[in-house]
Structures are given as C-alpha cells and as structure tokens.
Amino acid sequence: MFGLRKNNGPSNKPVVTEEAVLAALSRIQDPDLRRDIVALGFIKDLVIDGGKVSFKVELTTPACPVKGEMERQSREFVGAIPGVEHVDVQMTAQVRSMGATGQMLPGVRNVIAIASGKGGVGKSTVSANLAVALAMTGARVGLLDADIYGPSIPGLLGMSGKPAVKPMPSGDQMFEPPVAHGVKVMSLGFLLDDPSQPVIWRGPMVGSGISQLLSQSDWGELDYLLVDLPPGTGDATLTLAQRIPLSGVVIVSQPQRVSLDIAIKALKAFQSLKVRILGVLENMSTFVCDDCGKEHHIFSHGGARLAAEQLEVPFLGDIPLSLDICEASDAGTPVVSLKPDSAQAQSFMRIAEGLAAQVSIASLRQRTTIPLRAV
C-alpha cells in the first residue's frame, strides 16, 4: 500500500556447521580416558538439518558412570551454538575387545578373571554381584564358574538343573549356558549328578575341565565374560592364562595382613604370566552397626588400597561386611538385584563401573599412549 517491496533476499540466520558442532563437543572430556570425546571417536552419525542437530555418542562401555553428564553437556554445548534450535543426542556403547579370543571364544570381547590368593575372602560372591551389576548397565555378560573344587555360583544365583545341549553343524555338541539375572552362566555344578559330592580331580583334569567348560559352551556375543577362579595360583590359573588372551584379572582380598600378603603373591603370579592387573578390591572392609550406625573395622581396613598404591595398580573399591549380602546370597539373588538402592549394592555398582573403565583404558592403551588411571 505504501509502495514498499518485500525483501526476499538471503536470511541473516546463522548457519550451523559441522566444525562448530565438533568444536563444541570437543569441550567434553572422558575422565578415565583423559581425552575429549571427539578425539576418541565417540561422535557418530552427525546430521545437521538447518537448526536441528542430531548425533550419537558411542561410549566404550554401557557401564560408563558419567554417561548422563556427557549427555547433558552434549545438549548444552551444542545447543549454545548460534542457529541451533534442537539437539537430538543418542547415547550408545560399543565395548572394545582387548584382543581376539580365537576359535575357542569367537564372540567374546573380553575375558576377565576374578582371583584371590586364598579361600574365604568372598571371591565368588563378588564375581556373582559384579556380573549382575555389569548386566544391569546393559552390557552382555557371561559368568564361568571355574572353581572346580567348590562350584558355588549356581547357588549364589539361585540356579539348578542341567544346561540344555544343542548339536552343532560340525557334529559336536555345545552346552547352552542358562541365564539368571541377565547373565549367561556355566558351572561344573550344573553337571554333577549329586552337587553335595566332592570333586576329586588331579591338576591336569582341572585344566582340561575348565577348557571344556569354556570351549564347549555357546556363549554367543558377550561384552564381558567373568571367570570365577579357584583360590590360589594353581592349574586353573595357568590354564586360563595360557589358553585364553585375558583382558586382565581382578584380585579380591580382605583388609587384614595375612590375606593381603597372599593376595599380593597372587597378583605377582599373574604379572609373571603377563596378565594385566585390572584392579584390587577389598571385601568385608567395614561393618556398620544397624542399631547405632557406628563403623567397625573387624578385619582391619584400607589394607588393599594401600597395597594397590604401593604396587601401582588400580584400586577398584571396597565392599562392606553385611548381613544383607549374606542373606541375599543364601537366597540365590545377588544383593545388586535384590536391593539395588542399598549401600551394599551401590558399592558393587561402583566397582563394576570402575572395572569396565579399566578395560576401556587398557583397550585404548593398545592403540595409543594414554596412561592407565587408577580409579
């Protein structure tokens, strides 16, 4: 009406570029791997459509304890770029393998031994709870009960009966590991006609038995296969270390001196076999009175942490001496599953996250010069 023309020229709206998005995301650091998530190659499928930005952040483990914080930072930093109107972030994980496990375990990315220098330190209870804790994060987890003389994993997970057997195209037969609490499990305890009868085998038979349980079980695709070893450093340890490329070993100890001394010997035995020490943890560390809340150090306290510092290996954490853990184990339900919000369960969850982080760090060290961080 006033003779003015409508301007159909180019918009002054800022253009969002890939460089700007990656620069924003490079501000986010992985606290364990000590590099930014762009340099680590975590950013996948980046798409920019005008003011809409979408991408995936592919972590090295679903057990990453800072996953939620990384997602929040991704939205905040990219959303602050001029011109960005919407940010779509998808958090995923791809567990990296520490090395080929060969034809024996073709679908297993990482084999982690759980060991102790002596019996009675709660190693099997720790193994069961760590396996379930990792599975609760979304990881694909298996648990092999290699404690041939005292297979206790079936009882700790409330399992009984014999596993199914399926024929293979080669004519061989494979066990199908039954699943409990999201974990594939195999144990000699499933194969005994009478579980109360002792297993009286010579050393070579132990090694052969473990090899069969490993190779004749159809594990499928696993991110982590935990192996609950017998106490000490005998034939089972040698068999596993010599026949399977282990991602590493976790040493379980109690805090008192006698337990620590033997645990240190076990640790050094694995080091002599060129097996990476993923960490040391202290079980039965403290007892908290239900009535008064006072903390008691029944078996001393802090010895495993001190030993880990002196030996320059990661300390994964400590687990309290708790009636809840005992009762849950006797009932066949790990405390991480039965009481996931309890302090005891959270101790196992933190250790599981730390263990997954150490596997990721060690995997990356094979390709880079990133230093191992003790968590």
Oligomerization state: single chain
In the CATH hierarchy, the third-tier topology of the largest domain is known as Rossmann fold
Distance between the termini: 72 Å
Question: Major sheet, described briefly?
Answer: 8 strands, mixed
CATH architecture of the largest domain: 3-Layer(aba) Sandwich
In the CATH hierarchy, what is the superfamily of the largest domain?
P-loop containing nucleotide triphosphate hydrolases
DSSP, total strands: 17
Shape: globular
Estimated share of beta-strand residues: 15-25%
Quickly count the domains: 2
Rg, nearest Å = 24 Å
Keywords:
375 residues, alpha/beta, GMP Synthetase, Chain A, domain 3, Rossmann fold, 2 domains, 11 helices, 17 strands, disordered C terminus
List the SSEs and their pairings.
Blueprint: H1 18-25, E1 29-30, E2 35-36, E3 43-49, E4 52-59, H2 67-79, E5 86-93, E6 111-115, H3 123-136, E7 141-145, H4 153-156, E8 164-167, E9 173-176, E10 179-180, E11 183-187, H5 203-215, E12 224-228, H6 235-243, E13 248-253, H7 257-272, E14 277-282, E15 287-288, E16 295-296, H8 303-311, E17 315-318, H9 323-330, H10 335-338, H11 343-365
Parallel strand pairs: 4-5, 6-12, 6-13, 7-11, 7-12, 13-14, 14-17
Antiparallel strand pairs: 1-2, 3-4, 8-9, 10-11, 15-16
Helix pairs in contact: 1-2, 3-11, 5-6
